[in-house]
């Protein structure tokens, strides 16, 4: 960082740390013990869609690699484009196989990053539930290298902000929680959740 950067208040962006994803299984233990939230077995990676053969080839290779896993339960990895034009790769595992799900999400992020498509990566999401209609998504912001909880109220496009703050306090020892609450974006319609 140069002298002008310091004077003008510019900072270096935080480098993504995909290994942070491997903290999710221990966070899941905390969530279950303290708040009765359990994994649903669904996780997804969101990225800005890029047109072109190189990007399509990398996405298809990742999808084939994950689909080849003989221990996968349920449907193969699913590629979905949402109503806003973003692409999602959705992985489904057994609810008790969160480490394998995290491995899938890490593999997708790593493959896109190593192929030069890191700037297109937006976030990864792992879904949890707790009796009735209480839903929780743990969102990993790729460009920030941080997590935040998103708690939906039922099937509505409303958030339970008090529960989000409670869950972030609960998880602060397990995950690198995003300190800037304005970056806790609502992500409605996460495929598979």
| Residues in helices, as a percent range | 25-40%
Low-confidence stretches: none
Please tell me what the overall shape is: globular
Radius of gyration: 17 Å
In DSSP terms (H or I, runs of 4 or more residues), the helix count works out at: 5
Q: How would you state the average pLDDT, rounded? A: 86
SSE pattern, N- to C-terminal: HHEHEEHEEEH
Q: Could you tell me the strand content as a percent range?
A: 15-25%
What class would the helix/strand composition place it in?
Answer: alpha+beta
The main β sheet shows up as:
6 strands, antiparallel
Give the number of domains.
1
β-strand number: 6
Distance between the termini: 41 Å
Main-sheet strand order equals: 2-3-1-4-5-6
How is this fold's topology laid out?
Blueprint: H1 3-8, H2 24-35, E1 38-48, H3 53-67, E2 78-81, E3 86-92, H4 98-117, E4 121-130, E5 134-141, E6 146-153, H5 161-171
Antiparallel strand pairs: 1-3, 1-4, 2-3, 4-5, 5-6
Give a quick precis of the structure.
With 193 residues, this protein is of the alpha+beta class. The protein has helices spanning 3-8, 24-35, 53-67, 98-117, 161-171; strands at 38-48, 78-81, 86-92, 121-130, 134-141, 146-153.
Can you characterise this structure?
InterPro entries: PspAB-like (IPR054383). This protein has 193 residues and is of the alpha+beta class. The chain has one domain (16-177). Helix content is 33%, strand content 25%. Helix 3 packs antiparallel against helix 4. The protein starts with a helix and ends in a 22-residue tail after the last helix. The relative contact order is 0.20. The mean pLDDT is 86.
């Amino acid at each position: 960082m140069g002298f002008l950067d310091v004077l003008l208040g510019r900072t270096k962006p935080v480098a993504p740390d995909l290994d942070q994803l491997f903290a999710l299984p221990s966070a899941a233990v905390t969530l279950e013990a303290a708040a009765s939230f359990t994994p649903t077995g669904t996780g997804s990676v969101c990225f800005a869609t890029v047109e072109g053969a190189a990007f399509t080839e990398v996405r298809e290779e990742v999808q084939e690699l994950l689909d080849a896993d003989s221990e996968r339960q349920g449907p193969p990895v699913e590629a979905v484009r949402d109503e806003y034009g973003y692409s999602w790769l959705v992985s489904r595992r057994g609810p008790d196989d969160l480490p394998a799900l995290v491995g899938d999400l890490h593999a997708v992020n790593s493959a896109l990053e190593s192929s030069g498509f890191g700037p297109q990566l937006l976030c990864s999401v792992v879904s949890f539930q707790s009796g009735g209609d209480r839903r929780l998504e743990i969102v990993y912001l790729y460009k920030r290298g941080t997590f935040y909880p998103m708690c939906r109220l039922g099937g509505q496009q409303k958030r339970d902000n008090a529960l989000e703050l409670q869950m972030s306090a609960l998880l602060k020892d397990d995950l690198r929680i995003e300190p800037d609450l304005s970056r806790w974006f609502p992500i409605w319609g996460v495929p598979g959740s």
